[in-house]
Amino acid sequence: MFRNRNDLVLVGGVIAVAIVLGFAWFTSEAATAVLATGQTAAPPRPSSPADYTAPPLSGTTATPAPKAGTAVDIVRDPTDLPAPIGTRGPRRITVDLVTEEVTGTLANGTTFPYWTFNGKVPGPFIRVRVGDLVTVKLKNDVASMMMHNVDLHAVMGPGGGAQATQAGPGETKTFTFKATTPGLYVYHCATMPHAEHIANGMYGMILVEPDGGLSKVDREYYVMQGEIYTDEPFGTQGPVGDSYAKIVAETPDYFVFNGAVGALSEQKPLKSKVSETVRIFFGDAGPNKDSAFHAIGQIFDKVYPLADLSDAPMHGVQTILVPPGGAAVVEMKTLVPGRFTLVDHAIARVEKGLAGTLIVSGPKNEEIFKAADTAAMPAMEH
Ligand SMILES: [Cu+2]
């Protein structure tokens, strides 16, 4: 049956591996079944979590439908995020999300039917710490046309909470989860078709701080990249609709930071002063494209790749690759004044709307950067 002893050994090895894999499968299935029937002890609760009322999430709620021909500003200010948690212990937290469908400004003269969390893109920045018990209340605005829900990547549970929060117009759904693992996580609507709900603006991030919090920095910013697929070419004036065909073909017309063209350049640029440290919580909502996130004229002094906050950061990084549904935390010391452009270094996307600006003010620092003709480089005003 076997040509030689080596064949025999090989076949024996394959059988042994199959037995081990089979046992692992059986035990995992058995464990799942036990969990499903509730026969195990309840998961341990954090030691005496106190009730705690988190600051209300920013953003609008129940935005009135805009009048015909008008549009609302859906841009999330990149400074709109809660203060660091610091050293407090685990608590009970309630998060109120409201899904709202609004006509928003996509670019100068162009409006788009956004679907949002709390009226802005991205949705509110949720900030908790490891060990917190978080109750998510999702209300679908009564004026909505669609079902919506929320899947938070920080959740260990079915659908990340999507099934538990599937809500029709006017409905409110709730679930509670324990924040088990530090990290910066994307959340998004996961109502079918997922990609359309995400592309139309239904995403945000939740930060789960490690015990003791993150290191202190001078400024923190909240930035998310997204793609918008329209039924008219880039730059078309007036109201445009979404294009499901382009979403499926993965051919976006627009790439945007914080929801709209110019959101973080003309409208709400990031700011810093010479010698400060800036942290950016960066997420890629996709739904389809990676981001090669890069700040032109800066070096990321620290990067937490894939937003892993349990391990030491990397240092001296030029560009960080962030997948759709993923995030990164980057920090930079702004040593020199000037205007620095935030991009996806798949750089043609600048032509489709993707650029942000970091304005660094303060005295020149010619030890670090000195142009040949310094007269052409006036000091920035505060
Ligand atoms: Cu949705």
UniProtKB/TrEMBL annotation:
Binds 1 Cu(+) ion. The lineage of its organism: Bacteria, Pseudomonadati, Pseudomonadota, Alphaproteobacteria, Micropepsales. Residues 39-69 are annotated as: Disordered. Keywords: Copper, Metal-binding, Oxidoreductase, Repeat. Its EC number is 1.7.2.1. The keyword Membrane does not apply. This is Copper-containing nitrite reductase. Gene3D superfamilies: Cupredoxins - blue copper proteins. Its cofactor is Cu(+); Cu(2+). CDD domains: CuRO_1_CuNIR (cd11020), CuRO_2_CuNIR (cd04208). Residues 59-69 have a biased composition (Low complexity). It holds the Pfam family Cu-oxidase_3. It catalyses: nitric oxide + Fe(III)-[cytochrome c] + H2O = Fe(II)-[cytochrome c] + nitrite + 2 H(+). It comes from Rhizomicrobium electricum. Residues 104-211 form the Plastocyanin-like domain. Homotrimer. Belongs to the multicopper oxidase family. It comes from the Bacteria.
